[in-house]
Amino acid sequence: MKFEVDDDTTVQDILNKIEKEYGIVYKNKVGKKFINDMNTNYRIFLNNNYLEKSKVAKQQVKKGDQILIFKPISGG
Hints:
Structural class: alpha+beta
Number of helices: 2
Order of helices and strands: HHEEE
Helix content: 25-40%
Strand content: 5-15%
Distance between the termini: 32 Å
Largest sheet: 3 strands, antiparallel
Mean pLDDT: 90
Number of domains: 1
Shape: globular
């Protein structure tokens, strides 16, 4: 997905845009609210660097940045 960003756009702003656009579909398929699931079950990377959860709300993005969202693999 591509998003337009302003000078003060944060990673959290992008996650909020995804929630607004696809949140209902996500909840219907997964059974959880997108934003809540992102905060607990996924790892977020900005330009291939892991982003600590405490930095998601403050980390600004700029044109050309890439945000990756991964669910950690677990099991035996």
